[in-house]
Design a protein that fits this description.
Aspartate Aminotransferase, domain 1, Aspartate Aminotransferase, domain 2, 2 domains, 14 helices, binds pyridoxal-5'-phosphate
């Protein structure tokens, strides 16, 4: 029996079965490559779901963690934490934001945002103004608050009653937001590009029109950049493509390029709503994780990873377009930078499984959309290699469906 199989058997016995896991037992990683416990190498175009934006074990992240681990692992948020302050400064200097709340995940960052918009509205307009407009096919996390903001049946089913006060509108349709606004509305919450919903890019001008609507109606605009932020789309933050700024932005996944950290970035005007005692997190922005966040931010800001995200994103889309010309069951290639979806007219699950056997990690969202979110340091040669593997698999998938 392989070493993998015994770990898989043990994993299936005692780890909660909340994921349908693939038969890969992770051992180590370097750059765009993940190695399993039997020594097999995989080209990683999933990157821990858009977390490992700097590749596996980027030396700056590793060094920052090692140094900080020897100095101070954790310290209460009752005290000032230099690494956290530095990370907050880097985030504010490079975004619309003035203040940063630290937590540990995307869902927690969105929880903070939901609490902030309600508290601000309650303080300024009264307790009756609490409704939040969110989009169909959104994904904001797995806590009660965030599944209430996520209108996918498979995510909500069985957990009722959820948090009241959410309205859903089709993503990309400005008229439906207009129609959904009532005197009870306090905020609009959107992903600038939907991730889990199938890599959905809104039509040009949509986010600007949403911003204007929010201004006219005194609504806070929340952008969930948990997946699209930190260079994924070729800019540090996805909103920078559209010439609009939100009032609140949430980040997590790639913020420390591996270690778990989440943040809510907010304008000063609104930040005051969360004063002492209104919200908190024991681990949020602790020295170890914040040190990794500072190291990652410095790489995003001072290296060529954002340019590489643009250039390699263009190259990857071009190569995927060539495959679309070749296979009639590929209906569309879409995305921005290195956040790319390939929509199929067939189910994508089998392709993902075969890819794994062939040494390629990708995944499938919304049933029929293959998702490509490699590390932003990916090279042209690695993209070529990925395309070769995918081409071979698609050639077989085509014959099966014809
Ligand atoms: C992954 C994701 C989340 C949830 O992040 P967790 O760290 O898993 O809680 C929220 N919003 C978006 C857009 C995401 O992609």
């Amino acid at each position: 029996m392989s070493t993998s199989q015994s770990w898989i058997d043990r994993g299936l016995t005692h780890v909660a079965a909340t994921y349908g896991r693939y038969p890969l037992v992770a051992a180590s990683g370097k750059g765009c490559w993940l190695t399993d416990i039997d020594g097999k190498k995989y080209l990683d175009f999933l990157a821990g779901v858009a977390v490992n934006n700097l590749g596996h074990c980027h030396p700056d992240i590793v060094t920052a963690l090692q140094k900080q681990a020897e100095t101070l692992l954790h310290c209460s948020n009752f005290y000032h934490i230099p690494q956290q302050i530095e990370l907050a400064e880097l985030l504010c200097e490079n975004s619309f934001g003035d203040r940063v709340f630290f937590c540990n995940s995307g869902a927690e960052a969105n929880e903070a945002a939901l609490k902030l918009v309600r508290k601000y509205s309650c303080d300024n307009f009264g307790a009756d103004r609490f409704e939040i407009i969110a989009a169909e096919n959104s994904f904001h996390g797995r806590t009660f608050g965030t599944i209430s903001a996520t209108n996918q049946e498979k995510i909500r089913s069985g957990f009722a009653p959820l948090l009241p006060g959410f309205k859903f509108v089709p993503f990309g349709d400005i008229e439906s937001i207009k129609a959904a606004i009532t005197p009870q509305t306090c905020a609009v919450m959107l992903e600038p590009i939907q991730g889990e919903g199938g890599i959905n890019v809104p039509p040009p001008g949509y986010l600007q029109a949403v911003r204007e609507l929010c201004n006219q109606n005194n609504l806070l605009l929340v952008f969930d950049e948990v997946q699209v932020g930190l260079g994924r789309t070729g800019k540090l933050f996805a909103y920078q493509h559209d010439g609009v700024e939100p009032d609140v932005m949430t980040l997590a996944k790639a913020l420390a390029a591996g270690p778990p950290i989440g943040t809510m970035v907010v304008r000063e005007k609104y930040a005051a709503a969360l004063g002492p005692g209104t919200h908190g997190s024991t681990f949020g922005g602790n020295p170890l994780l914040a040190a990794a966040g500072v190291a990652a931010m410095k790489v995003y800001l001072n290296s060529n990873v954002l340019e590489n995200s643009v250039a390699m994103g263009d190259y990857l889309r071009e190569k995927l377009e060539e495959l679309r010309q070749k296979y009639s069951f590929i209906t569309q290639i879409r995305g921005r930078g290195l956040m790319i979806g390939m929509e199929l007219s067939i189910e994508g699950g089998e392709i993902v499984k075969t890819a794994l056997e062939q040494g390629l990690l990708i995944n499938c969202t919304a049933g029929k959309v293959l998702r490509f979110v490699p590390p932003l340091i990916v090279t042209q040669a690695e993209i070529d290699q990925m395309i070769d593997i995918l081409d071979t698999i698609l050639a077989q998938s085509g014959t099966e469906t014809n």
